[in-house]
Amino acid sequence: MEVQPFHIHVSDAVIADLKQRLADTRWPDEIPGSGWDYGSNLAYMKELIEYWRVGFDWRAQEKLINSFQHFKANVDNLDIHFIHERGNGPDPMPLIITHGWPGSFFEMHKIIPLLADPASHGGDPQDSFDVVAPSLPGFGFSGHARDTGMEVAKTAAIWVKLMEGLGYPRFASQGGDIGAGVTSRLGYGHPDSMIGIHLTSITRPTPYLGPDAEPLTEAEKALISDREQWQQAEGGYAHIQGTKPQTLAYGLNDSPVGLAAWIVEKYRTWSDCGGDVEKRFTKDELLTTITIYWVTDSISSSTRMYKENQRETWAMGRDEGIKVPTGVAAFPAEISRPPREWGERSYNIQRWTQMPRGGHFAALEEPQLLAEEVRAFFRPLR
After folding, report:
1. What confidence tens digit (pLDDT) does each residue in 109-154 have?
2. Given this model, what pLDDT does residue 374 score?
3. Strand 129-134 relative to strand 93-98: parallel, antiparallel, unpaired?
4. Phi, psi dihedrals of residue 196, rounded to the nearest 5°
5. Of the listed 70, 81, 84, 360, which one is catalytic?
6. Pick from 255, 6, 247: nearest CA to 140
């Protein structure tokens, strides 16, 4: 595997085109006083887009992004972009951390220094990691699959080859959302390569619930009911992306305001922000993520992964499970909040921590809390 250094630079022409498109926006109407009930609020979107057009400094964000060590490697004929930050400690543990949708590698920019160099951030150098933070296939600066089937299991196989190519035959893994799916598939399909896995969400696999399974607890019954209600109230995006992502892509790939509205609503709804998205994320953080999707033409390829993931259900068979040591940080505003006993049906749970605050974008919302939890889980596995 050949690894090449990579430097992010978006051309002036792309930025100028973006700003012109923002200036030419044709705004929709809105029912007065409806707030966010129908989706992204018009007043907030106008405020955000005006800042994107005249106040947001992509070059400053580009400089921040490029302060990390970026690389590309061709794995299975697909160019994979990743950050690789070597740990500052006596024996760093290799760790791959995987984002989800609508996130990006940028979601990890606060937590990477805490994991790679804990001593500089109030931690113990014994807890250091060699951190690899890739862009999922079809996301950000990674290549876009040209064939069907690029789902979490295939991504996990790519991650194993990537880490082996970097000199890590065994490694740790952490992730949330789609990243949790990739991490779970690493634990299930590649146990000999794994030191352990750490998750901030558990949505798949479905545990074995057939004959001889332990009866569902009241908390598990509540989880199933809550998930059904959530799908009715909030799951429309996933149904569209899982069935007709190409139709959606024309609007989102052509309109930066459409793209921003599609993404920002998720950052508000899925975070521990109490309805005020900027209690958790600055405009610069939101717009850096959105700009990454825009300049890489990756909203279409990213949403396709939903369709690929839904082609095949993943359910555990009797006496089947993920055997590698597993840790879970359960954030209170995560979109699905299973009880520990649900996780123990499918995973070898070694640590389960109810976090005091935070939501779906844990590495960006609560990097210090998540970093401390990741250090604590992997400490006895070193």
Report:
1. 999 999 999 999 999 999 999 999 999 999 999 999 999 999 999 9
2. 98
3. parallel
4. 175, 165
5. 360
6. 6
Place of tokens 């705004």: 27
Whole-number CA gyration radius for the chain: 20
Backbone angles phi, psi at 327, to 5 degrees: -120, 145
pTM: 0.96
Q: Which of 44, 208, 306, 347 is catalytic?
A: 306
List CB contacts of 165: < 8 A, sequence separation 6 or more.
1, 3, 73, 75
Residue whose tokens read 């969400």: 201
Tokens of 221: 């019954």
Q: How many Å apart are CA 374 and CA 342, to the nearest integer? A: 21
- Beta-carbon-side half-sphere exposure of residue 146 (alpha carbons within 13 Å): 5
Q: Are 165 and 1 in contact, with CB atoms under 8 Å apart?
A: yes
> In this predicted model, what pLDDT tens digit does every residue of 176-215 receive, in sequence order?
999 999 999 999 999 999 999 999 999 989 999 999 999 9
Residue 360 designated active-site: yes
Residues 6 or more apart whose Cβ sits within 8 Å of residue 374: 95, 115, 174, 198, 327, 329
Compute the mean pLDDT over every residue in the chain, rounded to the nearest whole number.
97
What fold does the segment set 3-26+40-381 form as a domain? Rossmann fold (3.40.50)
Which pLDDT score, from 0 to 100, does residue 349 have?
Answer: 98
Among 177, 188, 267, 347, the active-site one is 177
306 is catalytic: yes
**Tokens of residue 363, six digits:** 């590495």
